[in-house]
Amino acid sequence: MKAVIQKVLNASVTVDNSVVSSVQKGLCILVGVGSDDTMEDVDKLCNKVLKLRLFENAQDQPWKQTILEVQGEILCVSQFTLHARVNKGAKPDFHRSMKGPEAVQLYESVLEGLKTSLGNDKVKNGVFGAMMNVQLTNNGPVTILYDTKE
């Protein structure tokens, strides 16, 4: 499972010209489910996101607090293109991405894992499989690439 974890001041997802989800201070996470991912990868990703110290403390010292400690929000967006291979030719190869029905189950498990720790109101998501516009204000900028297989 691959993720792009971005610290944000705000983020939103729009589908068909309608905002479906938005968050304020927190994280925007693009999640790509790979063809060989399992619940073990879900657990690794959730644990990593919840333990990453990406936020300042009360004394403005960077890298001191987690999303839990700052009571931030998370916007998750499914992103099968994270597993694209572009080494050959001009067209991306998506064979390493898990197919829709199986991928949606693992993606929803990521959402549930995060909600268990943060609360339902703190974790938002886009529309799985839809064409989405993601808008965000990256804070820092802080952008972390994470692969549960590494």
From TrEMBL:
Entry superkingdom: Eukaryota
A single Gene Ontology CC term: cytoplasm
Any Pfam family matching the protein: Tyr_Deacylase
Molecular function per GO: D-tyrosyl-tRNA(Tyr) deacylase activity; Gly-tRNA(Ala) deacylase activity; tRNA binding
Location of the protein in the cell: Cytoplasm
InterPro entries: Daa-tRNA_deacyls_DTD (IPR003732), DTD-like_sf (IPR023509)
Keyword rRNA-binding carried by entry: no
Reaction(s) this enzyme catalyzes, per UniProt: glycyl-tRNA(Ala) + H2O = tRNA(Ala) + glycine + H(+); a D-aminoacyl-tRNA + H2O = a tRNA + a D-alpha-amino acid + H(+)
E.C. no: 3.1.1.96
Keywords assigned by UniProt, alphabetized: Cytoplasm, Hydrolase, RNA-binding, tRNA-binding
Gene3D superfamilies in UniProt: D-tyrosyl-tRNA(Tyr) deacylase
Annotated family: Belongs to the DTD family.
PANTHER family, sorted: D-AMINOACYL-TRNA DEACYLASE 1, D-TYROSYL-TRNA TYR DEACYLASE
HAMAP family in the record: Deacylase_Dtd (MF_00518)
Protein name: D-aminoacyl-tRNA deacylase
Biological source species: Schizosaccharomyces cryophilus (strain OY26 / ATCC MYA-4695 / CBS 11777 / NBRC 106824 / NRRL Y48691)
